[in-house]
Backbone:
């Protein structure tokens, strides 16, 4: 198997791929699959595990409403959607499939129709069950799992997630592990391998267009983040910093290239990561990379490469995304990118690893050095817990992305020093997964431990 980088880099909305985009997709699929939507009088939603524990902070309830109305995260206008949520709250009415070509009936819908459970369902820590009623009769009931990065799986008859049928390897260079990926690279680079695979799945022009669209969306997200002041939603009172930081940098340095300040690069990378994650926390448009909580790392490092590495071009952007995407696919195939399953090491750790690979590629690293950079990027994130304060993707998430972006650049530089490395990427990924299994549930997106319980609010 291999997969596509566009399964990792999906355009959507904040603040969370697993807690916002996944539930939105599940609710949309549920509504779209109703056999007799005209008979539905009510829909109830049960959120389990991490969705139940931190769903309020992550906006899961609103995402479910949007999904029931048939919205698609890729095209949803975040501002209009929030307005629509306010309307639903004010009127107590929701129209099934409203955003689709076949709208269904308008039904009563109140906050009490969404129940937040602390207990988990077998199969995955992020689960939601949707039930459509006709009066007191159940018309349809489905359970879905939000497995990370916005991807969902439906529960089968045994209640466990069903893997979609595996398509036969239709790509020229199938790989599951980093070792298998490297085996294809004796006379080609990792981006060349990935590009050939992508072109087997869709036309070449579409691949190039979508890579450009991913970068344009990341760049637009940075632009929005560095221009917006204010307080982030959710009640923690977190002030947005990217806009004032940008003004400070521009005032003190005036231009982006050839800066006299030796630490200017560090500041800009930090700024871009903050900008993306503030946009994400505010529910803005972001690219999952590979998740929303970790969405700032790759744009910040890629932005650094585009603006600071001499000779960077359109081709460099594609190479960065293809190299980073190949590494992300290995994580997805052999481990997990879900904070609810393995902690933040699977989200920000994976993003750091992917970004390190992308940067090493831009710096002309060999395929082995690119995977070595990815290994270093993860090795120093092992054990990273997920403990978002108030269940919001703000503290520690926003600053954590900035730290990981800087770490990714350091990892890429370190990897270029030599070809051979003691620890392989596959070994560190297996270690991350094992560490995630051993990690207490408190530190897996439940907000029951760590900073989430030790921060004294004032
Ligand atoms: S701590 Fe990490 S995994 Fe948890 S919500 Fe924040 S970014 Fe996501």
Residues:
């Amino acid at each position: 198997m291999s997969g596509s980088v566009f399964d990792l880099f999906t355009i959507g909305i904040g603040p969370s791929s697993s807690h916002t985009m996944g539930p939105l997709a599940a609710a949309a699929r549920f509504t779209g699959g109703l056999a007799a939507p005209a008979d539905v009088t009510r829909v109830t939603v049960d959120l389990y595990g991490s969705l139940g524990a931190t769903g309020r902070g992550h906006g899961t309830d609103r995402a479910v409403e949007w999904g029931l109305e048939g919205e698609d995260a890729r095209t949803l206008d975040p501002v209009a959607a929030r307005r629509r949520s306010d309307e639903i709250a004010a009127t107590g009415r929701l129209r099934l499939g409203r955003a689709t070509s076949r709208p269904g009936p308008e039904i009563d819908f109140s906050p009490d129709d969404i129940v937040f459970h602390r207990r988990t369902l077998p199969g995955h820590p992020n689960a939601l069950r949707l039930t459509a009623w006709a009066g007191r009769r159940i018309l349809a009931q489905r359970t879905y799992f939000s497995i990370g990065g916005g991807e969902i799986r439906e529960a089968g008859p045994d209640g466990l997630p069903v893997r979609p049928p595996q398509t036969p390897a239709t790509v020229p260079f199938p790989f599951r592990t980093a070792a298998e990926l490297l085996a294809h690279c004796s006379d080609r680079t990792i981006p060349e391998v990935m590009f050939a695979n992508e072109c087997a799945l869709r036309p070449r022009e579409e691949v190039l267009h979508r890579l450009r669209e991913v970068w344009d969306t990341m760049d637009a997200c940075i632009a929005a983040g560095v221009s917006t002041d204010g307080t982030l939603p959710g009640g923690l009172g977190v002030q947005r910093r990217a806009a004032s930081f940008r003004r400070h940098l521009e005032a003190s340095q005036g231009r982006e290239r050839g800066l006299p300040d030796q630490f200017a690069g560090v500041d800009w990378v930090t700024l871009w990561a903050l900008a993306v994650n503030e946009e994400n926390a505010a529910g803005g448009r972001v690219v999952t990379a590979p998740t929303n909580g970790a969405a700032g790392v790759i744009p910040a490092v890629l932005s650094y490469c585009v603006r600071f590495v001499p000779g960077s071009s359109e081709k460099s952007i594609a190479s960065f995304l293809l190299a980073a995407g190949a590494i992300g696919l290995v994580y997805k195939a052999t481990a997990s990118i879900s904070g609810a399953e393995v902690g933040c090491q699977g989200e920000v750790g994976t993003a750091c690893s992917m970004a390190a690979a992308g940067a090493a590629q831009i710096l002309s690293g060999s395929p082995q050095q690119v995977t070595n950079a990815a290994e270093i990027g993860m090795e120093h994130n092992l054990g990273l817990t997920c403990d978002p304060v108030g269940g919001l993707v703000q503290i520690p998430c926003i600053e954590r992305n900035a730290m990981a972006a800087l770490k990714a650049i350091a990892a890429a530089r370190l990897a270029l020093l030599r070809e051979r490395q003691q620890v392989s990427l596959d070994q560190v990924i297996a270690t991350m997964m094992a560490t995630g299994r051993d990690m207490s549930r408190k530190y897996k997106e439940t907000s029951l431990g760590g900073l989430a319980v030790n921060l004294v609010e004032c």
